[in-house]
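Fig. S4 source data, part A: sequence.
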Amino acid sequence: MPTSVLPVRTAAERREFMMLPWRIYRDDPNWVAPLLGDLKKLLNPAVYPFFDHGAAEFFLARDGAVVRGRIAAIVNHLHNDTHHEKTGFFGFFECDDDPAIAAALFDAAAAWLRAQGMERMRGPASYSTNDECGLLIEGFDSPPVIMMSYNPAGYVKLVEGAGFVKAKDLLAYWVDVERIPERLARIADKVRERERVTVRSLDMRRFPEEVRAIQEIYNDAWAPNWGFVPMTDREFAFMAEQLKPVVVPDLGLIAEIDGKPVGFSLGLPDFNVALKPCRGRLFPFGIFKLLWHKRKIRHMRVITLGVRRAYQKKGIDAVFYVETMKRGKARDCARGEMSWILEDNAMMNRGAEAMGGRVYKRYRMYDRELAGR
């Protein structure tokens, strides 16, 4: 029976869309299931703030009654307004290892995006670069860390076989700190003195005020970056509330000069270690697995590090590196991932290398032109 690709319309179809990965990855020891409660919010236009400025159509591919794949076609108006483009996105791509099914999914997404006036399809991004994005193309020998994507190695051929070409690579570095490099420590000390930089922990008692300050830093520091989309107030508040339960204040760092916040860095313990055995469900017994395996977390992910543009190239990033290493070691968590970093972000790549980091995973964003297809 030929494959049919149709948009999701019913609650039952939405559940099929959500649950497909549990079949795709059932024999993959590295897959970490998303929490179903979080996934429901992510796919709900009435809840997830992306839909304030974006739209998406969700598709399922079937052979008869069997679901063989899924995809979302996404229009992010804020991205296009920011970059003066007509770029649509694909996301939430999962598929059996069958090029014909993958092609049918991509063609359905492309047709919908063309109907919205888009000239290019980019991805994967679920929904933007502020969410999980990038196709894993190197580093399949270990699980993803918290809030990073994962996919079978075969997806590379499925995507490239459907006419996509490289747009940009996103790098993940592994850093294992036995001791802080002396040169880096000296640079950080000089910067503290010369620039009058102080670094403090997040103040969870003033969480809303801290979130507003961090949002201002984020939207200023990352603005020149490829693919950057500023986060709205509601998006940033939503993300902050999602992260609040797992934030360790001593790993959330704010750099200040004369009392003014000028930079922010956030390291998170890799809760994927604890979430993996839960298989996406915290109730009724997953919560006990989570609490048990939480004790085994010995590494972190440095999820973001940025400095306001007016204060960049002054060495404040070195202060963050050293302070994060010190605090990580104090928590027996001095190893982990720095991600993701654009392949052509020379400053951040040099910083990761200065800490002894090595690229151990590589993710790729792909483009496919829509005109004439």
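Fig. S4 source data, part B ends here. The chain has twelve helices and 15 strands.
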